[in-house]
Amino acid sequence: MFPRKKPAPELEPAPAVEARPGAKNRPTPRRRDQEAANRRPLVGDSKAVSADVKARQKAERAKAREGMMRGDDRYLTSRDQGPVKRFLRDMVDARWNIGEFLLPLMLVVLMLMLLGGNNPQAQILILPVVYGVMAVGVMDAWLLARRAKRRVAEEFGTEAPKGTSMYVALRSMQMRMSRVPRPQIKRGDPVVPHRH
Known about the structure:
The protein has helices spanning 31-38, 46-70, 83-93, 102-116, 120-156, 164-173. By secondary structure, it is mostly helical. Among the domains are: 52-79; 82-178. The longest helix is centred in the C-terminal third of the chain and has 37 residues, at 120-156. This is DUF3043 domain-containing protein. Residues 1-68 are annotated as: Disordered. InterPro entries: DUF3043. Pfam families: DUF3043 (PF11241). The chain crosses the membrane at residues 96-116, 122-145.
């Protein structure tokens, strides 16, 4: 009734494909396999990642701060970089500056005013001393800035950079322990230029 099916002829194995340069030479991956490989969780372990990042950032900040305190040019702001600025800092740090005593003096005066109450005689005695020390401190900073400019011209053969006077004066008004970068020279040591 029904015709018998003829057996399918045996297929010969396909000849091996020779790898061609520039060709893909591999089968195209299935779409679902590709999508499965690309699938990642939307929310990962953010706590572990952020703790890692925070720890690394904290270590980098500590290293940068330490370098800045040491006066390492890589970590200094552009305002403090270079051999001329280091020379200026050394000029300030190698001597006693009257300006560095202003803040402690102000604290002593404030305490005396608080303890003395509204005693007009105490104010008449204290205020001229305070203003006198301030005037001498400003004069000392101005003279140091002039000398620093002259020394920069002598040592480096170039004019002192713009803002040198303010840079030297502000550093001389700070207490030694609060200066950034920290002093790299002891009081009384000779000041010599550090060229790279």
